[in-house]
C-alpha cells in the first residue's frame, strides 16, 4: 500500500459511445471498465474516491455489487456548474499528501504502472508517444520541456500534428491540487474545466513537473465502441496468456473468449471457439469446440463440441456430448451424449441419459426439480416432467413421458403400441 489517495473520474456522459449505457459500465471481458481501475487502485490505496454524475445511481449499484464490503467513496460531481475533468476533482478532500487521478475509461491499466507515478514532484504526468495521437490531448513541448496540454478540440492545425499525447493519469501534491483547482477556467471549446490546465499553471508557478513516458497498451483510453473492442482484444490476450503459462492447453487461443473471474486449473484443454463466462471454474477438464460454460464448475469432465453449461451447474466425472444444455444441474458421473436439456436436476453416478432426453422443469409459472439416482438408464427421447424422482437402477424405455416418481429397479414405459397398416403408402400417394 502506498500512502496516497486515488480519485477515479467516472462522471462523463461518454457521448462518443453512442449508447444509453454510461461509458464506464461498458464491459471488457465481462466486467465494466470502471471495475478494472478500481481493482488496480485497491492494490495501492485505502482512500479511493470515484466521481460520478451521469446515471450515478446505476453506476454505483453495479460497482457495489462487484466490490461487496470494500470501502470505496462515491461523490457526485457538480456537473451543472463545473463540467469537465477538472470540475470532477473539485470538492474532494483526499486523505494523503499525494493524490493520483485516473480517468475511468482506461480498463487496461495495471497497478505496476500506477506505481511508477510514485516520484517526488508537484505533478507527475503520463505521456504517450504515438503514431497518431488522434482523440487525445496533445502535449506541447518547447525546448525539451512540457509547456501545456491542449485538447484536440482546442488545438491549432500545427498542434494537431503533435504525436505526443496526454495519457490521462496524474499524480498531484494534494496541497497543489486543492489550491489550484479553484483557479481553473472554462475558457475553451467545450466550456469545461480541464484538469489538464493544472499542468501549465504548475509550470508558470515554477513547480516541479515530471513527465513519464508510458506504454500505449496499458494506458489506452476508451471513448468509442471501436476502442472498446480493441481494448477487449488486448485484455483477452492477457487473460489467455496467463492461463497458458499456468499449463492450460488452448487450441487456436485467438478464437477463445474467457471472462475476468474464470479460473482454470490442472490439466485442462480448451478448444477453439469456446466461451468461458462469469465465474466458471474448470478443473482437469476438456472443453471441446464451440462450447459455452457460464458460472458453473466442471471437474474431471469433458463437454462438447457445442455443449452449453448454464449458470449453477456442477459437473464431476461427467461427459456431455454435442447439443447438450444444462442449467442448475448437479451431475456426478453422468453420461449425456447428445441433444438433451438437463435443467434444475441432480443426477447421480453411472446414469446414462439418452439422446433427446428433456427435463420438463417449467410449468409456465414455477421451476421444478428432477432427481435421478444411480445407474439409471434413460432411453432416447424421454421427457421427465418435474417435480419427479427417479430412483436407482431404473430403466426408462425410449420415448417415455415420465409424469410420476419411478421406484428403484423398475422399468417405465408408456409407449403407444405400434400399428401397421399394410400398403397405406400406395393408397395415399398412389404408385410412384
Ligand atoms: C482526457 C484528457 C486528454 C487525454 C485523455 C486520455 C482532459 C480535459 N482531457 O480526454 O488530455 O489525452 O483523457 O484518455 O482531461 N469525466 C468526469 N467528469 C466530466 C468529464 C469527464 O468525471 O465532467 C471523466 C470521464 O468519465 C472519463 C474521464 O473523466 O472517465 C476522461 O473524460 P473523457 O471525456 O474521456 O476525456 P478525453 O476526451 O478522453
Ligand atoms: Mg477518454
Give the helix/strand layout.
Layout: E1 4-9, E2 27-28, E3 31-32, H1 33-42, E4 48-52, H2 56-66, E5 73-76, H3 85-89, E6 98-103, H4 111-114, E7 123-129, E8 138-142, E9 145-150, H5 157-160, E10 164-173, H6 174-180, H7 197-204, E11 209-213, H8 225-245, E12 249-250, E13 257-258, E14 263-265, E15 269-270, E16 275-277, E17 281-283, E18 286-287, E19 292-294, E20 297-299, E21 302-303, E22 308-309, E23 314-316, E24 319-332, E25 335-347, E26 352-353, E27 358-360, E28 370-372, E29 377-378, E30 383-385, E31 388-390, E32 395-396, E33 401-402, E34 411-412, H9 424-429
Parallel strand pairs: 1-4, 1-6, 4-5, 7-11, 12-15, 13-16, 14-17, 15-18, 16-19, 17-20, 18-21, 19-22, 20-23, 21-24, 22-24, 23-24, 24-25, 25-26, 25-28, 26-29, 27-30, 28-31, 29-32, 30-33, 32-34
Antiparallel strand pairs: 2-3, 6-10, 7-10, 8-9
Bound molecules: uridine-diphosphate-N-acetylglucosamine and magnesium ion.
Amino acid at each position: 500500500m502506498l500512502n496516497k489517495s486515488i480519485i477515479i473520474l467516472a462522471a462523463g456522459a461518454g457521448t462518443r459511445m453512442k449508447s444509453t449505457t454510461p461509458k464506464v459500465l461498458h464491459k471488457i471481458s465481462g466486467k465494466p471498465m470502471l471495475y478494472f481501475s478500481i481493482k488496480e487502485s485497491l492494490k495501492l490505496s485505502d482512500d479511493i474516491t470515484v466521481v460520478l454524475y451521469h446515471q450515478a445511481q446505476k453506476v454505483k449499484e453495479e460497482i457495489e455489487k462487484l466490490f461487496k464490503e470494500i470501502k470505496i467513496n462515491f461523490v457526485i460531481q457538480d456537473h451543472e456548474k463545473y463540467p469537465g475533468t477538472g470540475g470532477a476533482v473539485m470538492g474532494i478532500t483526499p486523505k494523503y499528501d499525494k493524490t493520483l487521478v485516473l480517468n475511468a475509461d482506461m480498463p487496461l491499466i495495471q497497478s505496476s504502472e500506477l506505481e511508477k507515478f510514485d516520484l517526488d514532484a508537484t505533478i507527475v504526468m503520463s505521456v504517450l508517444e504515438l503514431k497518431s495521437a488522434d482523440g487525445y490531448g496533445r502535449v506541447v513541448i518547447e525546448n525539451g520541456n512540457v509547456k501545456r496540454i491542449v485538447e484536440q478540440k482546442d488545438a491549432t492545425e500545427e498542434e494537431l500534428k503533435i504525436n505526443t499525447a496526454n495519457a490521462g493519469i496524474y499524480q498531484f501534491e494534494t496541497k497543489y491540487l486543492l489550491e489550484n483547482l479553484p483557479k481553473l477556467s472554462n475558457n475553451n471549446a467545450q466550456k469545461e474545466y480541464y484538469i489538464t490546465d493544472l499542468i501549465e499553471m504548475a509550470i508558470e508557478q515554477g513547480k516541479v513537473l515530471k513527465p513519464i513516458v508510458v506504454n500505449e497498451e496499458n494506458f489506452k483510453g476508451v471513448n468509442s465502441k471501436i476502442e472498446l473492442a480493441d481494448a477487449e482484444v488486448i485484455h483477452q490476450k492477457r487473460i489467455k496468456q496467463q492461463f497458458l503459462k499456468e499449463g492450460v492447453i488452448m487450441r487456436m487461443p485467438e478464437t477463445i473468449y474467457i471472462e475476468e473471474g474464470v479460473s482454470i486449473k490442472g490439466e485442462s484443454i480448451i478448444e477453439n471457439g469456446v466461451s468461458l463466462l462469469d465465474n466458471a471454474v474448470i478443473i482437469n477438464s476438456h472443453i471441446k469446440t464451440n462450447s459455452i460454460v457460464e458460472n458453473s464448475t466442471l471437474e474431471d469432465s469433458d463437454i462438447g463440441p457445442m455443449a452449453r453449461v448454464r449458470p449453477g451447474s456442477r459437473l464431476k466425472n461427467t461427459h456431455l456430448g454435442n447439443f447438450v444444455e444444462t442449467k442448475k444441474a448437479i451431475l456426478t458421473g453422468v453420461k449425456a451424449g447428445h441433444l438433451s436439456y438437463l435443467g434444475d436436476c441432480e443426477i447421480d453416478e453411472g446414469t446414462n441419459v439418452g439422446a433427446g432426453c428433456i427435463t420438463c422443469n417449467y410449468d409456465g409459472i414455477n421451476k421444478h426439480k428432477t432427481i435421478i439416482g444411480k445407474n439409471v438408464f434413460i432411453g432416447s427421447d424421454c421427457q421427465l416432467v418435474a417435480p419427479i424422482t427417479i430412483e436407482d437402477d431404473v430403466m426408462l424405455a425410449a420415448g417415455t413421458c415420465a409424469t410420476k416418481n419411478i421406484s428403484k429397479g423398475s422399468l417405465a414405459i408408456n409407449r403407444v403400441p405400434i400399428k401397421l397398416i399394410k400398403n397405406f403408402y400406395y393408397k395415399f400417394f398412389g404408385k410412384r
